[in-house]
UniProtKB/TrEMBL annotation:
Recorded family membership: Belongs to the Mo25 family.
Record keywords: Membrane, Transmembrane, Transmembrane helix
Highest taxon of source: Eukaryota
GO terms assigned for molecular function: protein serine/threonine kinase activator activity
Pfam families: Mo25
Transmembrane intervals: 110-129
InterPro entries noted in UniProt: ARM-like, ARM-type_fold, Mo25
Protein source organism: Aegilops tauschii subsp. strangulata (Goatgrass)
Name of the protein this chain belongs to: MO25-like protein
GO biological process terms held by the UniProt record: intracellular signal transduction
Length: 132
């Protein structure tokens, strides 16, 4: 039902600015795969369907949003971590989010997180290759 609402920019903006939006950051990490997967898909739609709405939201809630987003980027759940990196690249590479992207990539704390994620990816690739 929420994904249907997200199709409309006005409702997407309302959801982004509501206190309920914070719940997505919790739902994507739930141990129940079905719920977490559905939350991830809804989260993705919310962040990628309406570029202008998301850009305005991110500009005015930059610190809050990326503090919460950092938690899912560093989640212990591999699927959550991997999907959150994918979504991050999708919504930051939107032309309307270019200022947000520039601000994000200039912050050392976020660079450190990305380097850490790359290290984990390299280790996983190495372990997979050694098993073959």
């Amino acid at each position: 039902m929420v994904r249907e609402c997200i199709k409309h920019p006005t409702l997407a903006k309302y959801i982004l600015e509501s206190n309920s939006f914070e719940l997505f950051f919790e739902y994507v990490e739930l141990p129940n795969f079905d719920i977490a997967s559905d939350a991830l898909n809804t989260f993705k739609d919310l962040l990628t369907k309406h570029e202008t709405v998301v850009s305005v939201y991110l500009s005015s809630h930059y610190e809050q949003f990326f503090e919460r987003y950092t938690r899912i980027l560093t989640s212990t759940n591999y699927v959550t971590r991997r999907q959150s990196v994918k979504f991050l690249s999708e919504f930051l590479l939107e032309p309307s989010n270019s200022k947000i992207m520039k601000r994000y990539i200039q912050e050392v704390r976020f660079l450190n997180i990305m380097i850490g994620l790359l290290k984990v990816s390299v280790i996983v690739l190495y372990l997979n290759a050694s098993l073959i």
